[in-house]
Amino acid sequence: MNGTSTQSRALRASALAAVLGLLTACSGQDAPRWRGGEQPKGPQVAAVVTAPAANAKNVPASAEIEFRTEKATSASVELKDSAGKPVEGELRPGGTSWMPMGQLEYGETYTATVTAVGAEGRSATATSTFTVMSKPVNLVRAFTNIGDDMVVGVGMPMVLRFGRGVPQAQRASVQRRLLVQTTPPQEGIWHWFSDTEVHYRPKRYWQAETQLSFRLLTGGLPLGGGWYGRSDLTVAARVGSALVMTVDNATKQMTVTENGRVVKTIPVSLGKPATPSSSGTMVVMEKARKTVFDTMQDPDPRNRYRIDIEYAQRLTWGGEFLHAAPWSVADQGRRNVSHGCVNMSMANAEWLFNKTKLGDPVVVKGTERRLQYGNGWMDWTMSWEEYVKGSAVPYEPGASAASAGPSPSPSG
After folding, report:
1. Is 394 part of a structural domain of the chain?
2. Which of 48, 83, 343, 355 is the most buried (most CB within 10 A)?
3. Domain hosting residue 158, numbered range
4. Residues annotated as catalytic (active site), given as ranges
């Protein structure tokens, strides 16, 4: 009796093995492979790598792993180079693609493994091995206005400039590679001012003491016309105190507030009627303890001069500054006599110069001229509604820069 039972079990086991062998023989690379012993009952889980395709060559160094799953409650991706070294990366929201958090090596071969997990422990895996392209000849540099460890003002935008224009069709893919993290989280978005320049600003001024982290993953990214991003960039900086300068042409006074409290009121002289100062919200873009203002090439002889200047803080590309003007002290607080700059006494200019940071806002009100588009960092001259229109990625209201993950949201 024992021998019959044993033989029956052996026959059944043999038959099961034959069936499983047939199923294996009929399955492809992306068919689910069950972990453990017996296949669980219920809906079958499946995973397929859709890009890069298996054995693909000349893959961009910015490649993301795209995949599809069925009957899965979660999925994970692992990417390893030819030596088995894992690559850091994160899933995008939606769970259908995974982005390496750094440029892949040119000429290297990688293997991506996607694991899908379903209910009751069912799981399946799929793999794709591909080779990255050789290093291209045409590479585009990118530059930022914020450097590592900088302490910036609450109005400071992140300005990213490319050495070559990015076509309209490529801007969304570029923007999705621009990752922002802030602590505490604050809503923000990227805005394309031109084909070579894209800025990031929060919905409102940065909160004081915010920690900023930018990961600009453009290395190896196709930028159109056979051009590629030269390298990735990472920047970690900090927002300092909330210093805001408000200049009122009606009173000829500058009110300086820090963290909401008035710390000083400074008499000023603005641009005379022939050369008025610009009204609008600007930020301090550059600072120079000493410089020379030279307008000898101005077509109007009345506007030509060359003069040594102290405590200069640039507000516009057109040449409007905050600076010391000891020659106009008698006019400061009373009348406008400058060529468009905000004049103040030597003592007040020195105090302010030692107080400010790049990115501190300067709000000028009530002059005869509005700030012209493109004349400086114009991020705060637009309403939030206008600003989001410059994004190449659809705006998602309420999205925040809480994570440096590869979100294609306004923070991405």
Report:
1. no
2. 343
3. 139-241
4. 323, 341
**Is 203 a domain residue?**
yes
> Can you give the pLDDT at residue 303?
73
pLDDT in tens, 231-287: 999 999 999 999 999 999 999 999 999 999 999 999 999 999 999 999 999 999 999
Q: Please enumerate in sequence order all residues whose Cβ is within 8 A of that of 164, keeping only pairs 6 or more positions apart, or say none.
A: 140, 196, 223, 227
pLDDT at 399: 59
Report pLDDT digits (tens) over 75-132: 999 999 999 999 999 999 888 899 999 999 999 999 999 999 998 788 999 999 999 9
CATH code for position 279:
2.40.440.10
Coil, strand or helix: which one is 327?
helix
- The answer to whether residue 7 is domain-embedded is no
Cβ(169)–Cβ(239) below 8 Å: no
Distances (CA, A) of 265 to 281, 324, 348: 18, 15, 9
- Same domain membership, residue 92 and residue 79: yes
CATH code at 109? 2.60.40.3780
According to DSSP, the residues that pair with 199 across neighbouring strands are 159, 191
**Predicted pLDDT at 237:** 98
- The pTM score is 0.84
Whether the link from the prior residue into 184 is cis, omega within 30° of 0, is yes
Give yes or no: residues 121 and 174 share one domain: no
